[in-house]
Amino acid sequence: MNEADTEIIRAVLSKEDFQFVTDEIDADVVMLNTCAIRENAHRKVYGRIHDIRHRRAGKPVTIGILGCMATNLRQDLLENKNLDIDFIAGPDSYKRLGDLIRQSGLHGEKPFDVTLSEFETYCDIYPQHKTGVNAWVAVSRGCDNFCTFCVVPYTRGRERSRSVENIVEEVRRLAIEGFKQVTLLGQNVNSYIDYSHPQQIASSPLNETPRNDAKPRDFADLLDAVSQIDGIERIRFTSPHPKDFPEKLIAVVAKNPKVCKHIHLPLQSGNTRVLEMMNRTYTQQEFLDLATKVRAMCPDIFLTTDIIVGFPTETEAEFEDTVKVVKDVQFDAAFIFKYSERKNTVASKRYPDNITEDQKKSRIVRLQEIQKEITYKKNSAYIGKTLKVLLEHGTNKLKNDFVGRTDGGHLVLLPQGNYQSGQIIDVMIISASPHALKGNVISPNPSSLQLDTNSKI
Ligand code: 5AD
Ligand code: SF4
Questions:
Q1: Are the C-beta atoms of 338 and 309 separated by less than 8 Å?
Q2: What are phi and psi of 325, to 5 degrees?
Q3: 269 is in which domain, residue-wise?
Q4: Are residues 405 and 361 in the same domain?
């Protein structure tokens, strides 16, 4: 989401005649677009601020902190004498960035705007998308779920969606620019709902009329609408919540050929008591039933998940429930995190972080080992199969392989060749590791692949 926001920021500032440089050493202003989701994200940012000042060796530079840390740690950022920053802007304040930059340093002030909006979706800004095969498209912002461990509802505010028309218009432009894949983004992307709120429409560049009499359109409707755009070959989305997976949505993923057969289904914990403390609104059994239903309706689905270990009061036996679910569901991949207490969250106020670092470490290591084996076994099952691979970009530097992705999302490494990024080719998988598949091109005939010098790499 921060990458997508940075593309919006570039568009906003370009309109005001700011110019972008490729190396921060040449910049008059450096902005760090920050994440506050876990402790290590925020430590990294504090380190980067010191690095930037150090590299400049006394040459003046204006440093701005943008994004979630700006809203979450405003006080600390403004008052901490060890942190030399000049201005702060939260995720809904990017249209004011030019003003904040111009005001910073005037009369020794540190201007800030961390106001959260109920309506800002930046639907009137066409982002300056990074070149490549994939474009991020933020379809909604904010989150209303208030999982007790999560800072997002406080840093990004209430959930709001752009209209279907507005999103379709952006994706149409992306297709014309040559993008082959879009990834639809939202903090809780599958609770997307287009009410076409009059206030939102007022700021839309499309002269839309309020659809007060019409039925709101949901995420499945949005996927169908986006899939009708010629030139877009693949549609991905992240991050969904298990509570927002009606059969209608699973059916679109299963049946619409452009919608990638990949669902990220964040489990967080496999224990019902912990899930309740987390305010996840589903039980272990409900999660298992959903995974079973998804696999039944879409047998070739690539399922991934997020898991937190060491949530306050989680016992060894409760952690074993998470292990059980991981083994039962057989996710293709999992992102596993140690619980990290975040300021302002319900968990930080109600539940002392009472699981020791050693316990968290031993649980994460154990789960990662189990998942690694599952991923390796699942990846190995593709050996000898032919898969459609979207060629993404040039070689990965270390090994000199060309990189592509399957519909599900596996990384596929290909030997050197005259490939064209954006092309979808048939690849025979010849080997697998827990991280990637390796393959040879089957069709089109490798010798007929021409390097397109205009392709976006
Ligand atoms: N501690 C650890 N992990 C967290 N996540 C969100 N908040 C926390 C936290 N306080 C993880 C969740 C979420 C992913 C994006 O980050 O697993 O799905
Ligand atoms: Fe955070 Fe995701 Fe829960 Fe929203 S749904 S509160 S973004 S973990």
A1: yes
A2: -65, -40
A3: 261-380
A4: no
The confidence score (pLDDT) of residue 8 equals 97
351 lines ligand 1 (CB under 6 A): no
For 209-252, how does the pLDDT look when each residue is reduced to its tens digit (9 = 90+)? 666 656 789 999 999 999 999 999 999 999 999 999 999 999 99
d(CA 440, CA 376): 19
Q: Are residues 302 and 362 both part of a single domain?
A: yes
Same domain, 243 and 302: no
Question: What is the whole-number distance in angstroms between the Cα of residue 147 and the centre of ligand 2?
Answer: 6
Ligand 1 center from residue 195 Cα (angstroms) = 29
Q: Which ligand number lies closest to the CA of residue 36? A: 1
Residue 233's DSSP bridge partners are none
pLDDT in tens, 302-360: 999 999 999 999 999 999 999 999 999 999 999 999 999 998 999 999 999 999 999 99
Nearest alpha carbon to residue 390 among 403, 400, 378, 404: 404
CA of 267 relative to ligand 2 center, distance in Å: 12
Residue 53, judged by CB atoms within 10 A of its CB (0-12, 13-18, 19+), counts as middle
Q: Are residues 371 and 394 in the same domain?
A: no
Residue 206: inside a domain: no
* Ligand number nearest to the C-alpha of 280: 2
